[in-house]
Write a structure and sequence with these properties.
The chain has helices at about 20-25, 95-110, 125-140, 155-165, 180-185, 245-250, 270-275, 280-295; strands at about 5-10, 15-20, 40-45, 50-55, 60-65, 75-80, 85-90, 115-120, 145-150, 170, 210-215, 220-225. By secondary structure, it is an alpha/beta fold.
Length: about 300
């Protein structure tokens, strides 16, 4: 039978479809030719009781990552979204800056609005509150909306519902950051499975096993995805990378050399801005991490 997909059709029904054989051969550099959020054309068999995906319409955007370290395959997490919510937790588990910045970089490359959702506010003590203020001071000034929430407080749930109304929203975050809990509170009665944090490693357990688009009663959709522990950059060259760091764009035109990569070149305006505190050092560290390990000059999707 092969891999199957649930497809929402125009009359509101959901039908199960398989892929046509020739479609499976396309885009062999990705783990799947069809992803959640895709707009597809469906064909019926002569008997009319079997459905298949005949083609995939061009995507307006997508979030993509390297499938695994050292892998030449890419994984498109979702397509055709209006915004991405990056769930961030400062405790149980702790979300690392580089993880956040890698998703922001990819969203920036495809023109997708990104929001940072600082979840589990009810667990924050003095240490976490200080760290939260530091994060807000980094991301707010460069134009990324930050929302500090707790799923135990209805006012935060209402705030998130308003942000999602009428839009397709991708939830993206490490395992354990509260994606399923957020969905359960926004959509009562859904009862998606939630889990505890591993005490041994303070990491979340994988509970969502496949990506799914969920209708919001107020209008719009949420795309829920399995938790991600690593986010390898794909489809961005080293030469293009700095333009997807918003704060670097303010300075890079003033670099001494037009082809400056902002690593160790003399007269680099970006490095000077980092040294003077105009660009957050954590953001520059993320840039170096992507530049040195993940961004590829050759891999073009």
């Amino acid at each position: 039978m092969g891999q199957t997909y649930n497809v929402l059709i125009e009359n509101g029904d959901v039908i199960t479809c398989t892929l046509k054989g020739n479609l499976r051969l396309k885009d062999i550099s990705t783990t799947s030719p069809v992803v959640v959020g895709d707009h597809v054309d469906v064909s019926d068999s002569e008997q009319g009781d079997d459905h298949s995906i005949a083609s995939v319409e061009p995507r307006k955007n997508y979030i993509i990552r390297q499938s695994k370290k050292l892998s030449k395959q890419f994984q498109i997490i979702a397509a055709n979204m209006d915004q991405v919510f990056i769930l961030v937790t400062l405790i149980h588990p702790k979300t690392h800056d580089t993880f956040v910045d890698r998703i922001l970089t990819t969203a920036e490359a495809y023109g997708i609005d990104a929001h940072l959702i600082f979840n589990k506010r009810d667990l924050y003590k003095e240490k976490e509150i200080e760290e939260l203020e530091e994060k807000l001071a980094i991301y707010d000034p460069i134009g990324y909306p930050c929302h500090v929430v707790s799923m135990l407080d209805d006012k935060y749930v209402s705030q998130l519902k308003k942000l999602c109304k009428g839009k397709v929203t991708l939830l993206c975050g490490m395992s354990g950051t509260g994606k399923s809990t957020m969905i359960n509170t926004m959509i009562p009665g859904l009862n998606r499975k939630t889990g505890a944090i591993s005490e041994a490693h303070l990491k979340g357990m994988h509970l969502t096993t496949f990506s799914e688009m969920i209708l919001i009663p107020e209008g719009g959709y949420i795309i829920d995805t399995p938790g991600i522990q690593e986010f390898g950059i794909a489809d961005i060259t080293k030469y293009d990378l700095s333009q997807y760091f918003r704060e670097m764009n303010v300075y890079r035109a003033n670099c001494k050399f037009s082809n400056c990569m902002h690593i160790n070149e003399p007269g680099c305006a970006v490095i000077k801005a980092v040294e003077e505190g105009e660009i957050a050092f954590s953001r520059y560290e993320s840039y170096l991490s992507i530049y040195n390990n993940e961004a590829s000059e050759e891999r073009r999707y």
